[in-house]
Amino acid sequence: MERNVLPHDSAKAARAPAPVPTPAPAPVPAPVPHHRALPAAMYACVVLVVGTVAAINLAVPMLAASALHPSASALVWIVDTYVIFFACLVIPGGAAGDRFGRKGVLLSGLLLFAAGTALSAAAPNVPLLLAGRAVTGVGAAAVLPNTLAVLLHAVPAERRGRSIAAWAAMTGIGGVIGNVGGGAVLSGGSWRWLFLAAVPIALLLAAFVARVAPVSARHDRRLDPLGALLLVGACVALLVGIVQGPEAGWGSALVIGGFAGSAALFTAWTLVELRAEHPLLDPRLFRVPALRSACLGMTAVFFGMFALFYVNASFLQYGKGFGVLRTGLGIIPLTVPIILGAQRVAPLARRIGLDATLALAFAFVGGGLLGLSTVNSGTAYVAYAGWLVVTGIGVTLALPTLSGAISGSLPPAQAGVGAGLQATTREFGSALGVAVIGTVLTARFVSALPADIRAGHGPGHGHGHPHTVAQALATAGPGRRHDIVTAFVSGADSGLRVIGTAVLVLGALVVLQSLISRRTAVS
Question: Nearest-CA neighbor of 201 among 171, 181, 219?
Fold first, then answer.
């Protein structure tokens, strides 16, 4: 601390002998962050929030048969509520970290995640379960972007490339761990265990992060709460229109209002962001053709992947009679190409070109989904696994190529925006895929049920057509299980055909846009 020098001290200071110079002590190196512990903590956080997206799909059959008696649309909302809040708030989550401190926002996100999963585990009804899922999604949105920000702040410059690559790999591995770990937890017999298991994990990670993560400087980055609110509202309204269609009717006021409200809110969001001095996501960015096509491509790949995750869990349990652990393991063939081939994608893209690589990627993803739609209850799992590998080859080709295209279409100063766009498009595509396949599956399932089952109603489900396997079994009894499962498999096949076709069409649009933009740039 400095001592204030008063006027009467000045004479004494003048008469005092000059101090004898002493050698300066050797500089003490600043404390170095835990180089091994810190990346491990950040990667574990990524696996937790991404794995949760995949794990919940395994619990859908349990939830359908539970005392909550959820409708088919409620099952989709249980999966999608987390994903949509995660998708829409991940960019605001990164901005909040810049403004209020990345470590603090990351810790707050983990605590919110724990609180949301605890509420979900204890929920006595569907509305409270959805509230818990929303809180968990808000927490995940605060966690994901700040794990990368904390990591890049602490890691030396020469190791940042490897750290970013490992962090990106965790976003893919997290889905696999979520399936396998979720299956292991759910083998205990209750869907509540899936949420209960996440509570101590999130709290332990919060304690770990508090110990090893450094505090980074804060930046005066303005937040945009109105823009974030409008974006969440627009996405939720869109899903209302898609998800509620089979039950409420496509001409109902709810469904039409959902689509109309979504269009109005997306328009309002665009206008607000265009007028904002510091928008979180500037719509003008999408004037860049390469960025626009790459974002559409990323949305399409995750649209297909998470539609598959949603239907795969129920198909293997209902159609093949797998337990939840075996179901969680059953998706692993999809990841084999990702693990073995990720390093070979960049050389291939340099050899055959970006457009050819993307064309192959979408052909494999869409073709694999269409192939999966030909599998039925009597087909050997080996054939199912083979089509999963085909789909996985497409995902392997697509993800690094599209990630590079998004990053490469923005200047280095906007690298954070690029990372946020990747996360947003991934999660939005996931939510949309679950909503669309859930809608198609439900509509086809109801129409494929035998007439006597379709006309009945079960205890606790109210009057009307059964919309889930659990409702149909409650209506007709276990003696009609074969007919009900056959109707479900028909619905799953129809859903996969719609999703596979959509991926092929969207992929063609992505490649066409990329070709046009490249030729325009050359001319």
Answer: 181
Q: Is the pLDDT of residue 19 over 60?
A: no
Tokens 């998706």 correspond to what residue?
A: 331
Residue 403 has pLDDT above 50, yes or no: yes
What values do phi and psi take at 468, rounded to 5?
-135, 165
User: The tokens 């109005």 sit on which residue?
Assistant: 264
A 10 A CB-CB count for 401 gives 23
pLDDT of residue 111: 97
Residue 168 CA: distances (Å) to CA of 12, 185, 337, 373, 404: 64, 26, 16, 30, 12
Residue type, 319: G
116, 137 contact by CB (below 8 A): yes
Rounded-to-integer distance, Cα 60 and Cα 303, Å: 19
| Least reliable range by pLDDT among 305-314, 365-374, 447-456 | 447-456
pLDDT at 15 over 70: no
Q: Calculate mean pLDDT across residues 249-267.
A: 93
Q: How many CB atoms lie within 10 A of CB 376?
A: 15
Q: Which two tokens stand for residue 230?
A: 């409008």
Q: Which tokens in the block code for residue 253? A: 């006021």
Provide the pLDDT confidence category of residue 506 given band limits of 50, 70 and 90.
very high
Displacement of CA 49 from its chain's centroid (Å): 8
- Interaxial angle between packed helices 481-522 and 469-476, expressed in degrees from 0 to 180 and rounded to the nearest 10: 160
- Alpha carbons 349 and 113: distance in angstroms, whole number: 38
- Angstrom distances, CA of residue 362 to CA of 67, 124, 335, 394: 41, 42, 16, 6
Whether 210 and 219 have beta carbons less than 8 Å apart is answered as: no
3-state secondary structure 283-335: HHHHHCHHHHHHHHHHHHHHHHHHHHHHHHHHHHHHHCCCCHHHHHHHCHHHH
8 Å CB contact between 74 and 126: yes
DSSP-derived letter for residue 477 is: -
Q: Cα separation of 348 and 504, whole Å? A: 21
From CA 311, how far away is CA 441, in angstroms rounded?
A: 8
Helix count (H) and strand count (E) of the chain?
21, 0
Angstrom CA distances, 356 to 68, 349, 351, 363, 423, stand at 48, 8, 10, 10, 24
pLDDT in tens, 78-121: 999 999 999 899 888 888 888 888 899 999 999 999 999 999 99
| Residue 29 backbone phi and psi in degrees, to 5 | -60, 140
More confident residue, 522 or 353: 353
Predicted confidence (pLDDT) at residue 210 exceeds the cutoff of 70: yes
Tokens linked to 489: 């498999």
First to last CA, the chain: 66
Cβ-contact 216, 153 below 8 angstroms = yes
Q: Does residue 3 have a pLDDT over 80?
A: no
User: From residue 344, how far is each of 248, 338, 400, 494 by CA, in Å?
Assistant: 48, 10, 10, 34
